[in-house]
Hints:
Layout: H1 2-32, H2 40-56, H3 63-67, H4 72-106, H5 118-131, H6 134-137, H7 141-161, H8 169-194, H9 198-209, H10 217-235, H11 238-244, H12 248-253, H13 258-280, H14 286-298, H15 302-327, H16 335-360
Amino acid sequence: MHRLHELARRRLALVVVFAAALLMAAASAALLVGPAAIGPGDLWAMVARRAAWLLERGTPGSAHAEAAGLGWQETILWQVRLPRVLTGAAVGAALAVSGAVLQGLFRNPLASPSVLGVSSGASLGAVLAIFFGLSASLVWALPLFAFAGAILTLLLVYTIATHQGRTPIATLLLAGIAVGAFNAAMSSFILALALERWEVAKTIIFWTMGGLDGRTWDHVLLIAPVLLAGMAVVLGYTRELDALLVGEVSAAAVGVDVARTRMILLLGTALLTGAAVAVAGGIGFVGLVVPHIVRLLVGPHHRALLPLAALVGALAVIAADLLLRGLLAEHNIPLGVATAAMGAPFFLFLLVRQQERFARA
């Protein structure tokens, strides 16, 4: 038994190192790819210059301080590409962790951040901010409206599904689907109204498709603390999630407060999803596909599953964005369209497997 645990730990360590190496490679490639040519040597030289500048920034007139950030390559790297990569990594991590938590919480392999309508609620809030012109005048308006939409949707779904202190999972899922459909309908209605103002309608369409174009350090500063806080919350409930895998009755028998755990985890996933949608728009299927891939590699235990899902989710979004910018740059295809095109077949595969399992049972 001890040998089996040791082999499992070694396998986990190898998977984590391999995923981290792939993530670093994808992030480095993403910093190099773009209309402006930046070679690997230029990249490392700029990193070295910035490091030297940070060490000497207290020395007025130093050569490093004067040179840092003045060249066009430095501007592109530090102000355009790096915020884009960091935002993509945070968005992928948030969506993948949310999906892993929801799949464990509902014991449903088809669960994803959109299952409770949270994604569509965040989208509706952002669409309202764009439609009323708030996003053009206030930089934080769109993210704040997206957050508000996500939280209000979660509270509405939970209130509808809760009766006499009990919240049946089936009712919660159905309420989420219904409220999500309403949110999507309202977003479409607002888009129809916005068609009279083409620039506003175009902004709404491209935002709902999802993407990382034009992301700045403001977006990084918005999602980074939410990601860290959300990860801290869900990582504190890995034991409870493992217990819930065998059913709520069994989990309650070993001391899990099922109702409290469910509410806290739903709130955590709502914050993560709301932050991801707030900074990147609608990027679908990352929260569905990535947890399944990670589960195949390291098993269902959430103590290993959640951190690795964050790594692989970040890798998936950065790699998809890199693919679009490297091979399909001239077509300007939104990131959300690409992730949906790759994730939809996987979703159908999971659905067919689920039907076959029910037929055998």
